[in-house]
Amino acid sequence: MVKPLRKAVLPVAGLGTRFLPATKAMPKEMLPVVDKPLIQYAVDEARAAGIDQFCMVTGRGKTALIDHFDIAFELEATLAERSKREALELLREEAMPPGSITTVRQQVPLGLGHAIWCARSFIGDDPFAILLPDDLVLSKTPCTAQLAKVYNETGGNVVAVSEVPREHTNRYGILKVGETHGDIVEVTGLVEKPKPEDAPSNLSIIGRYVLLPEVVKYLSQMERGAGNEVQLTDAMAKMIGHTPFHGLKFEGKRFDCGDKIGFLEAQIAFSLARPDLGPAVREFLKNYVNA
Ligand code: G1P
User: What is the pLDDT at residue 291?
Assistant: First the structure.
């Protein structure tokens, strides 16, 4: 029996310099796609996979993220007084059970691997998901639930992967691939941000992982990798051969919301997918595209 997946780590310590000035006084993870902040997409996606314990790895200036998941008492009282039932219900539906979110601080920006290592007490001896809130996935089945299904079958590490153009391999963690069974590929090696000519494939990791707690042991070595940072990919690579490791060619489309074009595309794709907004957006977009 594999241990059930109940925990998720959300690294949210990044500065968001690519979105200045919007992110001068606001965490980048609070930027909304349509009407929901990026962080909320990540939490909702994890909850849809049965995850009920969260650890946000934060940094200075990130308190809005913690406030976002608290009860907004004054707001709720005012909405109740004014009989704004729909708005009130929306807030209550999304409320997190008490004690379900903890936070730790990454005091210095030493890389994604270091951020995950900061959550080591939270991880303990349990499997855990990682969701990078910059990466949004629009899919029929939430991406983390797709990974959880593979985890339940294999009992090992699973990362969401998608093909990228060769010239972009230096932006991602890239897989060396063994046997392939349908959408599931065996991972035989991992390299962080290789040059196109050195890349073992063009299958890239997107910001969704389900990992075994053993990864913490390798992160503790604090080895510096690409960009002189402690890379999660390098620690994961050290688990290959000891524990099962698979990549899942997930169903859905990933948007890189850490990039302006990706963020704008996400706004359009997510609003077109919404029954309440889609038809109107489709209609007005025609005017811009045909102009
Ligand atoms: C991180 C990971 C990388 C992964 C990417 C997905 O890179 O280090 O392996 O492919 O997220 O978005 P970053 O985007 O933080 O440079």
Answer: 60
Ligand 1 mutation target, pool 117, 130, 132, 147, most atoms within 8 A of CB? 132
Residue whose C-alpha is closest to residue 249's, from 195, 189, 206: 206
206 lines ligand 1 (CB under 6 A): yes
Each residue's pLDDT tens digit, 217-236 = 999 999 999 999 999 999 99
Contact 42, 257 (CB under 8 A): no
Residues facing 137 on adjacent strands: 254
C-alpha 170: how far from its chain's center? 19
SS3 90: helix
pLDDT 10s digits, 67-87 = 999 888 888 899 889 989 888
pTM over 0.90: yes
d(CA 163, CA 174): 10
CB-side neighbour CA atoms (13 Å) of 66: 16
According to DSSP, residue 243 is labeled B
Identify the structural domains of the chain with CATH numbers, from first to last: 7-285 (3.90.550.10)
Res. 37: pLDDT tops 70: yes
At residue 210, φ and ψ (nearest 5 deg) are -125, 120
For residues 106 and 218, the answer to whether their CB atoms sit within 8 Å is no
For ligand 1, say whether the CB of 192 is within 6 Å of any of its atoms.
yes
What distance in Å separates the CA atoms of residue 288 and residue 291, rounded to the nearest whole number?
5
